[in-house]
Specification:
Layout (H helix, E strand, L loop, with lengths): L4 E5 L3 H12 L3 E5 L3 H20 L5 H9 L1 E4 L2 H5 L4 E4 L5 H14 L5 E4 L6 H5 L8 E9 L3 E8 L5 H14 L2
Parallel strand pairs: 1-2, 1-4, 2-3, 4-5, 5-6
Antiparallel strand pairs: 6-7
Helix pairs in contact: 1-2, 2-3
Amino acid sequence: MVVNTVAVIGARSLGASLALYSARAGFRTILEDIVPASLRRASHEVQTALAAEVACGALTAAAAEQSLARIEFATSVEEAARQADLVIEAVPDECESKLEIVVFLDKLCRPGTILATTATCLTVADLAAMTFRPDRVVGLLFVPEAGARLTLTVVAGPGTSAKTMASLLALSARQTA
């Protein structure tokens, strides 16, 4: 599966960073949060980060504008998830919240959509078992580095397909370049 549109569910710092990395890598990106103030804060964080990259010469002004133009904001999970090839949940790391959002996303997303979790409180296997798409569920571990770079680790569950892993590894290569 080719990933063209990435939805990030949850606009706290991690979600804003994930949206920024995805947009900068050339993906259409939808950042969702049910709290409008969180979306405004995330928008400000993204704009500030892009301006800092331009100021230090890591990014051209045109590239920053293009990255910003690729980010859309949504106030409903439904609006964001239905359009995405990859949905990354970045909600607070509370077990019940993670289970609830993964089950909800599984129902909302198109059958081929890949679900990615940032959970550390549950395993990929645990979350995948709650879905009808265990072959398309992965874990993602993000570690921001100096210079606006990112280390991304893709964690497969026991049922994650080779096709899903190939899609995520391609995405990872674009996001961390």
